[in-house]
Amino acid sequence: MLGTAEPKGISLHIGLNRVDPVHYAGWKGELVACETDARDMETIARSQGFLTQSLFTNRATSTAVLDAVEKAGKELVEDDFFLLTYSGCGGQINDSDKDESDGLDKTWVLYDRELVDDELYAMWSHFRPGVRILVLSDCCHSGTMTKTMFLYPAP
Fold this sequence. Notes:
- This protein has helices at residues 34-47, 62-75, 117-123, and strands at residues 9-15, 51-56, 81-87, 90-94, 104-109, 114-116, 132-138.
- By secondary structure, it is of the alpha/beta class.
- The chain has one domain: 3-Layer(aba) Sandwich (Rossmann fold), CATH 3.40.50.
């Protein structure tokens, strides 16, 4: 079909081998291969034609992650792809807005603070309808990190 562009793919790969102990009461969150996992995922995405970005350990701050997701949301249009991968520690905190059946929000443990599932869920509003989003979360407590957006889409 004339004028029909191939779908575009953007990917963001996050890997943390440790966190800043200043922000976690002395805990370092040391892991061995999360940066390697993120590099491998980036390699796979690049081999499929995705425009890739990675954030490793001290560059994987909450601001950097949220900014990268928002930027992708502004660039992608219907039928495009956004791939987001995370490898690091996961956590749980008390649910402040009472939207979790177990009373706990899930988190990604980023270098400077925990990114709450509610924050990530809010980022999906930056994407146009029809953008396909895949999130691969390799961490503890990651089951509902994307909330129920994909299980129960809005009518």
